[in-house]
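Hi there,

I know you've been waiting on this one. I reran it after we fixed the sequence typo, so this is the corrected version. Both the input and the resulting structure follow.
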Amino acid sequence: MSRQPVSSQPTHATAALEPPRHLNRDDLRALGRARREAVPRGRLAEWSPDGRQDPVKTLKASNRSRLPGIVPIRIGRMSGDPFAFLRGSAGVMANDLARTPSTGIHVQACGDMHLVNLGLFATPERNLVFDVNDFDETLPGPWEWDLGGWSPASSSAPARSASATTSGARQRTPLPRRTACACASSPT
């Protein structure tokens, strides 16, 4: 197997990157620093809706492969609060994250990273391991995609309990409801 030289430049989000196994620890650190210079942490927060796919069309497209009888249930759950919307709209998030900067370091990403999808497991040796426990959205991709999904999902989960009014009724966030209702109201 011939080794390709490892570039310090980030790759496109969908390009596979062979791990640089022939590099020593110092070389790996230098490579990491070079990639961080090419894609500084601040760039990971960059996002623009310019050229974005319509989220309603994306949700409708994802509904075409589902059982027709459960689509209204899904939409109803998604319209409940921001956290439920984010959990049900992985395709929208994937489309958004695919257009964000990446260092080119690829992992087997969770694809649905939030606090509820982390937990403890017992190994065959009876040790407890803390790790991801939901793999139904997993895919190879940049590590930044899990970070990009973690931030909004993790910040909306605490907001669910904090959004209750003094009477105990939960306030609804308009954006998820509008998007889910638009998805439900027009034909696929």
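Quick highlight: The beta strands are 106-109, 118-122, 128-132, 139-142.

Best,
R. S.
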